[in-house]
Amino acid sequence: SQTIHQWPATLVQPVGSPLSLECTVEGTSNPNLYWYRQAAGRGLQLLFYSIGIGQISSEVPQNLSASRPQDRQFILSSKKLLLSDSGFYLCAWSVREATEAFFGQGTRLTVV
Amino acid sequence: AQSVSQHNHHVILSEAASLELGCNYSYGGTVNLFWYVQYPGQHLQLLLKYFSGDPLVKGIKGFEAEFIKSKFSFNLRKPSVQWSDTAEYFCAVITYSGAGSYQLTFGKGTKLSVIP
């Protein structure tokens, strides 16, 4: 069966420090991969999605970037965190034929 | 770009009351529709989905949703809510975004509080 792993679960980082959140999917090939940010009252904001290795689409210009170095690995990064980057980040995957997405447990990022 | 609107930010109901959460999307092509639920402290879970066929779909825990194409709507319903239904509910749409890729867009969510 397919599983999605996202880590760390919580992270506290100082302003100006780098960020790397990792997400891996097991049990499937060529998944669509997504990074979302969830803010209270604002729902899920799509940050990046990827249909294949090295193929990243950015939905919202910001201080973050994403990379897909392997088929089932999706990384969210920042060179210098801002206070406004605090939030709850969710990784998700779906099969390419547009079925439902499956979510990881999420990472609570606090920038101090 | 496609968008998903959930009209109610916070709904408060007493147990046994009926529930209807609104969801509208803006996209003229073929869509796949979903409702997700997030219970307090838990990750997002799929509640139900619509791809094609009968526009009235039934999900887990007694929830159902009706797809009305002419209204671009996919409202979630439950005839009698329970305290355990307290959660945040998200409507989502998958649309075709070209070059063989599909995009999943979420609404802002509706928080449901059920009072015992």
Condensed summary:
The complex is a heterodimer of chains A (112) and B (116). With 112 residues, chain A is an all-beta fold. Helix content of chain A is 0%, strand content 59%.
Account of the protein in words:
The complex is a heterodimer of chains A (112) and B (116). Chain A has 112 residues and is an all-beta fold. Chain A is built from no helices and eleven strands. Chain A has one domain (3-104): Immunoglobulins (Immunoglobulin-like). Chain A is 0% helix and 59% strand. Chain B has 116 residues and is mainly beta. Chain B has no helices and twelve strands. In chain B, strands 2, 5, 6, 10, 11 and 12 form a six-stranded mixed sheet that branches. Chain B is globular. The model of chain B has no long low-confidence stretch (mean pLDDT 91). At the A-B interface, strand 4, strand 5, strand 9 and strand 10 of A face strand 6, strand 10 and strand 11 of B.
Oligomer: heterodimer
Major sheet of chain A: size, sense and barrel closure?
7 strands, mixed
End-to-end CA span of chain A: 38 Å
Biggest beta sheet summary of chain B: 6 strands, mixed
Classified in CATH, the superfamily of chain B is Immunoglobulins
What share of residues of chain B is helical? under 10%
Order of helices and strands of chain B: EEEEEEEEEEEE
* CATH overall fold name of chain A: Immunoglobulin-like
Q: Briefly note the structural class of the backbone of chain A.
A: mainly beta
CATH class of chain A: Mainly Beta
| CATH superfamily membership of chain A | Immunoglobulins
| Residue windows where pLDDT falls under 50 for at least 5 positions of chain B | none
- Structural class of chain B, by secondary structure, is mainly beta
Termini separation of chain B comes to 41 Å
DSSP, total strands of chain A: 11
Tally the helices of chain B.
0
What number of domains of chain B? 1
| Gyration radius of chain B, rounded | 14 Å
CATH class term of chain B: Mainly Beta
**In what range is the share of β-strand residues of chain A?**
over 45%
Name the poorly predicted regions of chain A: none
